[in-house]
Amino acid sequence: MIADRVETLLSQLTLEEKAGQLCQLFAFTPNNEELDAEIAAGRVGSILVMRDPSELDRLQRIAVEESRLGIPLLFGFDVIHGMRTIFPVPIAMAASWDLDAIEAGQAVAAAEARALGLHWTFAPMVDIARDPRWGRMVEGAGEDPYLGSAVAAAQVRGFQGNAIGQPGRIIAGPKHFAGYGAALGGRDYDEAEISDHELRNIYFPPFKAAIDAGAGNVMCAYMTLNGVPATGNRWLITDILKGEWGFAGFTVSDANSAFDLTTHNFAKDSADAGARALHAGLDMEMSLSTRSSAYRNLPGLVADGTVSEAALDDAVRRILSMKVKMGLFEEPYVDQTRIDGVLNDPAHRAAARTAAEKSFVLLRNEAAALPLNPAALGSIAVIGPLADSARDTLGPWVFDQNLSETVTVLQGIKDAVGGLVDVVYSPGVSMIARLNPSFFDALPGFDVAPRVEVDDNLEIERAVALAEASDCTVLVLGEAQNMTGEAASRSTFDLPGRQQDLLEAVIATGKPVILLLMAARPIDLKGAQPSAILNIWYPGTQGGAAVANTIFGKSVPGGKLPFNWVRSIGQVPLPYARMNTHQPKDIDNRYWNEQGGALYPFGFGLSYTAFEYSNLRLSTAWVGLGEDIRVQVDITNTGQCAGDEVAQLYIHQHHGSAARPVRMLKGFWRVRLEAGETTTIDFALTAHDLTYWSSADRNWVQDETAITVMVGTDSTATLSAVFEVRRNAAIFKDSD
Ligand code: BGC
């Protein structure tokens, strides 16, 4: 029994060793004697960032062979969108709306990480992001709690499998609990002020879904939520997470965020920070070094009665049972013989390529500019500072880049049609550097791409000449990978540097221009109109191959935006699920100076083919409280080629104990249809889908009300039907 083993171990631990199990330290470099000594003394329970398998084994040997009780270390790492095989960034995976692909992607990441000796990832990031100024939007699933919950659960299943401790899997740690995405002004780390109904209906659901899917860990957020730092927030961690939701895994702080309870003007000193974090329910403290550890004070705090040993024991128990479940006592070391086979598995690269193809969102395609027919093209100009940048193609949160095997867009196009078509290249302009570099830029392995420095004026002229001389131009523009992610918030959405000038100059040639946007937030093109726009996010290791397959029509885009793509930054925040106003007709006309709706709505994405929705039908005209209803719709592929469509179901509640948004996503299916094929999609709308947190009742409610169901291709879908929710349906329904 796991519990018995844990109790036996716990009973043998000294106070200092108990505190040690709660201590997680960064290991940036190998052979750190100070760290070795701490591990040998039983003062470290977990290590993060180190991922060199022989160093992991060396550290583990110290824990197992030299520490008094031989308790193995837990090794954590930010496996965000791949380990060796890099998948598209998480927001891109969410844009695929393909839960199987998302699960399969994180299963590959888990297999590679576990082969290297890692046990635990600080992922998925499930923070809802409704302000694209916030750079970390790239790490999540966008603005919607329903999509976010489905994606969160799929990722947890991918990382962990069906249960913690399965071979080739790692512990998932949804983060950052909670509300981090609502950072004031979109400024990373700033405070979040979130009402109770927003927390319950919007920000919590993806965490709840991840926990229901079995996530073993939860990371607490850095920032202050409604005036209380998240890491010291007992209501969040103990009452909600461990209490209401019954979370049985362990919690970890963000880097130094327990110690930083002092920085937040919350804790008086390091000891107070330790006491209050433990009281809040924080189990493990992630520290940059022993000097910034609040939990070092725990033995003293127990001894003087400030914190109870029972609270300390609860935290230690949660961590020890995770180590037991992971099988670390039986197999603490890395099987060095398996590593290469797992990391070099060609199936992993193939999965990354298909995932990238599924993630692309076609935003514009005038006169069927895409797909390109290579047989009809003599030459293609590939232009842009991101067209041949392997580092940027991978995106943020990639530490160990294998740049030589990363396929850039230029390379992908050359590989696909180089023998047939003349492919010429120019960076067009330089990629500018950040005005304020982030600490990430200085981290080994996380560094910025080597920039091609050119004279922008001369290079734009050269690019225009290439475009004029070619049959078609593929422009690859956007933000460099270090302009998005942690500590990468932004106050404008324009193309950095001189890219807009380049775009306009190339469009002015009058030749077909295919714009590939490498970005994870809405980019403001200031009305420029290339022939086609394909959002390719940061597509990962196989990005260029996926792009080539897509622009030449081997793969048909079917991704959909997981956020509203605003016209200008002044509109932010603009979630699609807004409340009605007293002038509903003008809801998208609130600014006198520009159209106020999204440029591309949530759920939007074009295809090379076309789909028609018809025959929307409900299984019943009314349901009782607590009952489910089925919604069916027919979809026909009316175009010329096979393609994927993401059918989306939205609901609108007419009246209730509290006001509800104009529409909310409550179902989706990604389906593939051959040209001319019709299929029926079956949505199950459950009572759970109709239940929400009412600020009026301060409780979960399902109202007797009327609900409009809308089904279609994006969040502006108009095909609709109405049903009622009544009391006591089960009794009266037959005679009604
Ligand atoms: C980030 C976390 C990450 C941690 C460890 C922090 O700065 O907020 O998301 O897991 O670092 O790398």
The tally of helices reads 21
The radius of gyration over CA amounts to 26 Å
Bound molecules: beta-D-glucopyranose
Largest sheet: 6 strands, parallel
Strand content: 15-25%
The general outline is globular
Tally of strands: 26
What is the CA-CA span between the terminal residues? Answer: 55 Å
Taking pLDDT < 50 over at least 5 consecutive residues as the criterion, the unreliable ranges are none
Q: Keywords for this structure?
A:
736 residues, alpha/beta, 6-stranded mixed β-sheet, binds beta-D-glucopyranose
What is this structure's SSE topology?
Blueprint: H1 2-12, H2 15-21, E1 23-26, H3 33-40, E2 46-48, H4 53-66, E3 74-77, H5 90-95, H6 99-116, E4 120-121, H7 145-160, E5 171-172, H8 196-203, H9 205-212, E6 217-219, E7 224-225, E8 228-229, H10 234-244, E9 250-252, H11 270-280, E10 285-287, H12 298-303, H13 309-325, H14 339-343, H15 346-359, E11 361-365, E12 379-383, H16 390-394, H17 409-417, E13 422-426, H18 456-469, E14 472-478, H19 499-507, E15 513-518, E16 532-535, H20 543-551, E17 611-618, E18 622-624, E19 629-637, E20 643-653, E21 664-673, E22 678-685, E23 692-694, E24 699-701, E25 705-712, E26 719-726, H21 729-732
Parallel strand pairs: 1-2, 1-10, 2-3, 3-4, 4-5, 6-9, 12-13, 12-14, 14-15, 15-16, 18-26
Antiparallel strand pairs: 7-8, 11-16, 17-19, 19-22, 20-21, 20-25, 23-24, 25-26
Helix pairs in contact: 1-13, 2-13, 6-7, 6-15, 7-9, 15-20, 17-20, 18-19
Bound molecules: beta-D-glucopyranose (BGC).
